[in-house]
Design brief:
The chain crosses the membrane at residues 37-60, 72-92, 113-131, 165-189, 196-215, 235-255, 276-300, 330-351, 389-411, 417-436, 448-472, 484-503. With 518 residues, this protein is mainly α. The protein is 66% helix and 1% strand. Helix 2 crosses helix 8 (186-214) and helix 16 (334-367) packs across helix 18 (387-400). It is globular, with a radius of gyration of 22 Å.
């Protein structure tokens, strides 16, 4: 990878400033450009949030492959995720706009296909983001449910288990608070973002050391790195199949780094700092996340018990690990509950950052006329915040959690879109880059040089692979309660987006449009 020298000032005067570069891409500066490279990185790092992803899906990792899948599979997924991130960073450097992925698709697919490519990419990205925020905040509501349960005596001690309606209320309050915070100026969001990144890092270090040190019984290194758990209640016996399903924890965690791209219109030196934000967020998350997985897994002894709904945490594996570690040494699990609050605060910041990214994508997509009532959603207030986009994102994320009141299976189907749809949106502009624009693409300051096309194809093939793998059944026999609804949800989204294009959008949507005026 290389960094091109800045163009000569005499020849590229407009490109020497962020405002000038944005005008070249067709937009005037409406948002306040305040973010440093650290702030840009912090938002993506906070949205990735290893404490969120690993904690939420640790049960999946334990059940499908266990320690070996989590500790070794983390780097398998990480390597391919870095390929996706590098390709995205290269394109971000060339086109640093809040629209990000859908704008890139329009510019890389050629004039004939630009509107359709932009439409498909944009809707997959924005729906995936809304689903992501809903999933993050609902997972926090579920964790609070477990914390309350443990704090009042646990599952086996008469503890209070909040109903699905109370959990939904938790979710609504969390979303409301996130919308309020995201209504503040970018100066405040920059501060919260940096604090959140610091919290995530320190939280990981505290937990990865404290939990195994406090535990009276610890797993051996051989168990942590080589034990492959094939004992699951899903009726799956193929080791390869089990390993693949166990990768979901890692892939779910390592997503959301497109936030750095969506924040480029508020980032200084965006064509350099946007790509740095993407790559550094992935790289540091890989290191920090592996440490968290190792620390927790060294405190694991009895996998079936941790996954059992009859334990004190009701089957929430990491909560039970924390609780048992402190209870075994001190006679009570208060320390474990405190550890869970460290995770809960990290998840809270993750949801906050996700909504920040959502609102910027909504702002940009509506600025280009792609959304119903677009003129309303791209309005910017006196604080230079896309305020209506913020509250729309919160409302849609709230509505997306409504299926949880009827069936958690239905909600999980919606939540699966958060990973699959977003990664499809990641892959589309990369695909157009390597297939249609491999000769015409003009890189920005950051580029991959002669490895650009190779890395791009690796990224595209990886996304195609995980899209198929994560659509496979996760339990046998397959029934309406065990069916993996991911292909149904993603297929439904594709059908709706395609039909809306055929019936209506192809007649009026022309892709990204300038707002520079005459």
């Amino acid at each position: 990878m290389t960094w091109n020298k800045p163009p000569p000032a005499a020849a590229q005067a407009a490109a020497d400033t962020d405002h000038g570069r944005l005008r070249e891409l067709g937009y005037k500066q409406e948002l306040k450009r305040h973010l440093s490279v650290l702030s840009n990185f912090s938002i993506s790092f906070t949205v990735i949030s290893v404490l969120t992803g690993v904690t939420t899906l640790y049960n999946t990792g334990l059940a499908f492959g266990g320690p070996a899948t989590m500790t070794l599979g983390w780097f398998v997924v990480g390597a391919f995720t870095m390929a996706v991130g590098l390709s995205m960073a290269e394109i971000c450097s060339a086109f640093p706009t809040s629209g990000g992925l859908y704008y890139w698709s329009a510019r890389l697919s050629g004039d004939r296909w630009a509107p359709f490519a932009s439409w498909i990419t944009g809707w997959f990205n924005i729906v995936g983001q809304w689903a992501g925020t809903a999933s993050i905040d609902f997972s926090l509501a579920q964790l609070i449910q477990v914390i309350v349960l443990l704090s009042t005596g646990g599952n086996n001690g008469g503890g209070y288990l909040a109903s699905k309606y109370v959990v939904f209320a938790f979710h609504a309050v969390i979303l409301l608070s996130h919308a309020i915070i995201n209504s503040l100026s970018i100066t405040w969001l920059s501060f919260f973002g940096q604090f959140a990144a610091l919290w995530n890092m320190l939280g990981v270090f505290v937990l990865m050391i404290a939990v195994p040190v406090v535990a009276t019984e610890r797993a051996s290194a051989k168990f942590v790195f080589t034990h492959f758990n094939t004992d699951n209640s899903a009726g799956i016996h193929s080791n390869l199949y089990i390993f693949v399903l166990g990768l979901l924890m890692s892939q779910y965690t390592l997503s959301g780094y497109d936030a750095s791209a969506h924040m480029t219109e508020e980032t200084k030196n965006a064509d350099r700092n946007g790509p740095i934000g993407i790559i550094s967020a992935i790289g540091i998350s890989l290191i920090v996340g592996w440490g968290y997985i190792l620390g927790i897994t060294f405190a694991v002894k009895d996998i079936p018990y941790l996954l059992s709904p009859d334990n004190d945490a009701g089957g929430y594996a990491i909560a039970e690990v924390f609780y048992l570690a402190f209870k075994s040494r001190y006679g009570n699990g208060v320390g474990g509950i405190i550890c869970l609050w460290i995770v809960a605060i990290a998840i809270y910041f993750c949801g906050m950052g996700s909504m920040t990214s959502n609102s910027r994508m909504t702002y940009a997509f509506s600025r280009d006329g792609a959304m119903p009532f677009s003129s309303l959603w791209h309005k910017v207030n006196k604080l230079e915040v896309p305020i209506n986009a913020v509250w729309l994102s919160a409302f849609i994320s709230l509505c997306m959690a409504l299926p949880s009141l009827g069936s958690l299976v239905a909600f999980q189907a919606m939540a699966s879109v958060a990973t699959t749809a977003v990664y499809i949106a990641y892959a589309l502009p990369i695909l157009f880059r390597v297939m249609l624009a491999h000769k015409s693409f003009v890189p920005g300051p950051f580029n991959l040089g002669r490895y650009s096309v190779l890395v791009g194809w690796i990224a595209v093939l990886w996304v195609a692979t995980i899209t198929v793998l994560f659509s496979l059944p996760v339990s046998y026999p397959v029934t309406k309660d065990t069916l993996n609804y991911t292909p149904v949800a993603v297929g439904g989204l594709f059908t709706l987006v395609l039909l809306s294009w055929i019936v209506s959008a192809r007649h009026w949507f022309k892709g990204p449009i300038t707002n520079l005026g005459g």
